[in-house]
Specification:
The protein is α+β, with helices and mostly antiparallel strands and 244 residues long. Helix content is 46%, strand content 20%. It folds into two domains: 60 residues, Arc Repressor Mutant, subunit A (Orthogonal Bundle); 168 residues, GAF domain (Beta-Lactamase). The radius of gyration is 19 Å and the shape is globular. It holds the Pfam family HTH_IclR.
Length: 244
Amino acid sequence: MLGLEKGLAVIACFDAAHPRLTIADVARMTGLTRATARRCLITLARIGYAETDGRFFTLTPRVLKLGYAYLASTPLTAVLQSALERLSEAIGESSSASILDGGEIVYVARAATKRIMSVGLAVGARLPAYCTSMGRVLLAALPETEARTRVAASPRPALTARTITGVEEVMAVLARARAEGHVVIDQELELGLTSIAVPVVDRAGRVLAAVNIGTQAARFPPDALVREFLPRLQAVQADLARIV
């Protein structure tokens, strides 16, 4: 199983900022020895999950099978996708759903009407939880001690001048999220971007995911975001609670 763990760690090194990596790059990013990194990369290439030009390694589309296995085995994602498509068609704005993975959120469904971020988002994309509306909703659903541990353990750079980064400040925002049942982000993730999120709760009251609406701050400042879109999200929330 250690070999599997190392192989997954190597795959995780590749992202939009690092699409092509050398053996030395992977060794540095994973903490593996160069020999181990080389064996992992060569194995991935041999079984079709990576390819190399002799120096640089890149992942192949076969890696998508790993993510698809999760999506295909989780009926919730299909339900979320259908709900988001109806929502976005009705309001003319992009909507998304995500789950929590450590200190990050992972997009599991998305209905995009326009590109609102400088970085494109799709199913499988990851963003930090501490400064995103869905991330804060999901962190707020955890026991307070666990939420604090995850926030404290996560890198928390100030992505904009508005980003809340201090552990106590983030915890205060999470407390407010628990009380209000939703989270609004005003240009903390990226200037010009605002969003609002609510949790997806099953009939037993367990938080399974979060859904949000993201739009341009110039068109929908926080008050307008709550006024226009919170009722829409709450309607989706209620519909999902009856079927998940």
